[in-house]
Design brief:
This protein has about 290 residues and is α+β, with helices and mostly antiparallel strands. The strands form 3 sheets. The protein has a 7-stranded mixed sheet. The protein has a 4-stranded antiparallel sheet with strand order 8-9-10-13, with helices on one face.
């Protein structure tokens, strides 16, 4: 059973463009979102302690990337990142950092957190992860690992609430309370193309292993869809006309067009195992 959670957001300087703190009720941790331009001048004590941090970047091609790290003094480490970028030692440029601190964190614990967060972010495949090396074999008690796994679950909640889905897989389970019918799996099979997918809060996810038509009708689909196909092929998300990972689309129609290569209505094309279309299920859910 899922339970509601209360999050307290505080705009430290009265604006959402400056420092924001986020706290969960009954948790001793805290998230701090801070713009790059405010790091050096920040005088807060809670940014000088131990913790983990995310540096969010935009690649030249518009893709999202993230550096995940740990430090015993987070502010000093962020300042060093800025200096390393200025000197050319670091090639990536970040505009926003999200830090996580908590009572009783030490070097062993934050190394464990860094390693686990990097693994989760890579598995989620939302962002390109820039972190190269982590401490995989940190020696810890079983009770400490359990406490840090709980810490990670709270990090997932807060970083998502702050607008970064870096730790959430594209085909994540629907939230409790959503329509069970809508969140069934849907199937598409026409000619050589076949795919399985699911409706999510962000759109429609086509699962790994979908077979897509090799050719695309450039006359009937948008130039943006042509570029999207080319992008996924170039990034090896599609190989030998099969998807190699789950892919998120903003709508069921975009997902169907991507698979089939020509213009179709997604709600009328995607069907459940018993033959009901997504359109029929959406209509029944609003009656």
């Amino acid at each position: 059973m899922s339970f509601g959670k209360a999050i307290e957001l505080f705009l430290v300087n009265g604006t959402a463009d400056s420092i924001i703190t986020a706290e969960l009720s009954n948790w001793n941790g805290m998230a701090i979102k801070i713009p790059r331009i405010e790091v050096a001048s920040c005088k807060r004590d809670d940014v000088t302690g131990p913790g983990v941090y995310f540096l969010f970047c935009k690649e030249d091609d518009g893709d999202d990337s993230v550096y995940i790290g740990e430090a015993e003094n987070i502010k000093d480490r962020l300042v060093q990142h800025i200096r390393d970028n200025q000197s050319g030692k670091e090639k990536y440029y970040w505009n926003t950092a999200v830090l996580f601190t908590g009572r009783d964190l030490n070097k062993a614990l934050i190394r464990y957190l860094e390693y686990r967060l990097v693994v989760i972010a890579r598995d989620s495949k939302r962002y390109k992860v820039l972190t190269k090396n982590t401490y995989k074999n940190t020696v810890m008690k079983e009770s400490q690992k359990s406490a840090m796994e709980e810490f990670i679950e709270n990090i997932k909640i807060l970083i998502n609430a702050l607008g970064y889905k870096v730790l959430e897989p594209v085909a994540s389970k629907p939230a409790a309370g959503t329509s069970a019918d809508i969140n069934e799996e849907y199937y598409l099979s026409q000619g050589n193309a076949s795919a399985t997918g699911v409706v999510t809060s962000e759109g429609f996810v086509v699962y790994k292993g979908a077979a897509i038509n090799e050719k695309i009708s450039e006359k009937s689909v948008s130039p943006g869809m042509v570029k999207l196909r080319e992008k996924h092929i170039a990034e090896k998300h599609v190989a030998d006309n099969k998807t190699t990972e789950d892919i998120l689309f903003n709508s069921s129609s975009a997902a169907a067009v991507f698979v089939l290569g020509y213009s179709v209505s997604g709600p009328a094309t995607w069907k459940t195992k018993d033959g009901r279309t997504l359109k029929e299920i959406e209509a029944s859910s609003t009656d």
